[in-house]
Specification:
Helix content: 25-40%
Bound molecules: flavin-adenine dinucleotide
CATH topology of the largest domain: FAD/NAD(P)-binding domain
Largest sheet: 7 strands, mixed
Number of domains: 2
CATH architecture of the largest domain: 3-Layer(bba) Sandwich
Length: 449
């Protein structure tokens, strides 16, 4: 166990996994801190095992470690990669569906092969900072585990906690749920439960459906508990996305605890309705966490607005693409506001949306990178998080090579060199503002339910 690392990655969801593998493949000493005992975050522990979206209209926009992971999983029967050339399918069709245990095991293998020092079951709980001429830098972090408290130092830190914990401990500013189109409540979370296919024969499914429909009419189940009173639909939609657990403000532990309890109460209500209808043993397992769509967005040097996103704005420091529709789930009911991207629009993410404002040696990748709520509702999807993670892993590797006053400074790296490194490592690097000036501005539609 070293006392000083080149790069520390906090959190091992889709973003942290790719960040750690990339930095280690760049030859750096990398330590990964993950609070759960399994890698993957929302993809595995959160039970939402669909990865959207690597392709747009048959053209690949995101490759690199995220895509390599999908192909490795596919080779062991752990991923279903759809025909990406198929035209005009509904957007969920283009997601890569993965097997959760195989996905977690493959992440373990890729992290170990790259030489990452993995620390599962460890929570990052504090950061020490020191002043610099340009702001401040993180000098060390504290991690708590069954071994007690441990202080760890690194040249560069990457916050991939999804909630931006490390950034907040280091004193970064953040946004969390400002008013958007008349709604201030954060998007609801979803708790994944796993109905058994075996128990779902035609007669059982019909009886369950009837009982669930009646329970919704009678108010025993709310519309947010189930978007369709049909177990077959739950199964065919891969079971990921069927309830809305509302009023989650998970920039604090009390709210996260409440979301977990509310999630299990929702599943308990559904099991109760089924049991009363004589349908037992259909739901035996639930994900350990209510998966949260929206928490903190950390203030960085550039804010991606929804207009930037749907217009596919180009940036001088663009490092990866992102591709998804604007997708704002509404609190308290089953409802989503969406805006599809116009044909040919290929949004990109600049490094400066991931360089944390006022902190020299801190990057943030994944769903807590900086944008407004609507842009965030699109770039939070997993393939985009993977691309951001890899870009930050490479950026951190380069920043860790700078010496003297600039040691670890993420703003001192040469963007052309970073983009070349990413391309060399199999990533698809977006055109810069110089290569391809942004096209016409697309308006963000006023959403109507
Ligand atoms: C219900 C739901 C459905 C979704 N559907 C889809 C979909 O179909 N397709 C799609 O592509 N995307 C979907 N998304 C979005 C996507 O899954 C997430 O935005 C994305 O996985 C976020 O990845 P991440 O790496 O940024 O964060 P996370 O996956 O949240 O990973 C963060 C990691 O950091 C760890 N961590 C947190 N705090 C600490 C700490 N203090 N110390 C140590 N570790 C810490 C966590 O345990 C976790 O492992 C969905 C999201 C939800 C919630």
């Amino acid at each position: 166990m070293l006392s000083h690392y080149d790069v520390l990655v906090a959190g091992c969801g889709c973003a942290g996994f790719c960040a750690a593998v990339e930095a280690a493949r760049c030859g750096k000493r990398v330590i990964l801190i993950e609070k759960n005992d399994m890698p993957g975050g929302i993809l595995t522990v959160g039970g939402n095992n669909d990865i959207a979206q690597f392709f747009s209209e048959g053209v690949q926009l995101i490759a690199g470690i995220g895509w390599e992971f999908c192909r490795r999983l596919e080779a062991v029967g752990g991923a279903v990669i759809p025909d990406m050339q198929a035209k005009d399918k509904p957007h969920p069709y283009y997601g890569v569906h993965v097997n959760i245990p195989l996905a977690a095991a493959t992440m373990d293998e890729m992290l170990l092969d790259a030489g990452v020092e993995i620390n599962y079951g460890q929570v990052l709980c504090a950061a020490q900072t020191a002043e610099t001429p340009t702001g401040k830098r993180i000098s060390s972090v504290l991690v708590t585990s069954k071994n007690g408290l441990r202080e760890i130092r690194a040249s560069v830190y990457i916050d991939c906690t999804g909630d931006g914990d490390l950034s907040v401990f280091a004193g970064a500013n953040y946004e969390c749920g400002e008013e958007t189109d008349g709604t201030t409540a954060l998007q609801p979370g979803t708790v994944r439960y796993y109905p058994s296919v075996r128990a779902c024969d035609d007669a059982t499914a019909a009886r369950a459906g009837e009982a669930l429909r009646r329970a919704m009419n009678d108010g025993i189940l709310s519309p947010a508990d189930m978007n369709a009173p049909d177990l077959r639909a739950v199964l065919s939609a891969r079971g990921c996305n069927f309830n809305h657990i509302s009023d989650t403000y998970s920039d604090d532990c009390d709210s996260r605890t409440a979301a977990d309890i509310a999630g299990r109460q929702c599943v308990k209500r559904i099991i109760g309705v089924l049991r009363d209808a004589g349908v037992t043993d259909v739901i035996e397992t639930v994900a350990p966490e209510t998966a949260l769509r929206e928490t903190r967005r950390i203030v960085c040097d550039t804010k991606i607005t929804a207009e930037d996103y749907v217009s596919a704005r180009t940036y001088p420091d663009g490092v990866c693409h992102s591709y998804y529709l604007i997708d704002l789930h509404l609190s308290g009911k089953w409802s989503i506001r969406q805006q599809k991207l116009e044909k040919g629009k290929k949004p990109s993410i600049p490094l400066s949306a991931m360089t944390v404002s006022g902190i020299d040696n801190l990057l943030v990748a994944g769903r807590c990178a900086w944008g407004d709520r609507l842009a965030n509702s699109a770039y939070r999807v997993k393939a985009s998080c993977m691309a951001m993670g890899q870009a930050c892993g490479a950026a951190a590797a380069l920043a860790s090579e700078t010496t003297g006053n600039h040691c670890g400074n993420t703003r001192s790296i040469d963007i052309a060199r970073l983009r070349a490194l990413l391309a060399q490592h199999g990533c698809i690097v977006p055109p810069t503002a110089e290569d391809a000036p942004s096209e016409d501005t697309v308006k963000v539609s006023e959403f109507h339910q």
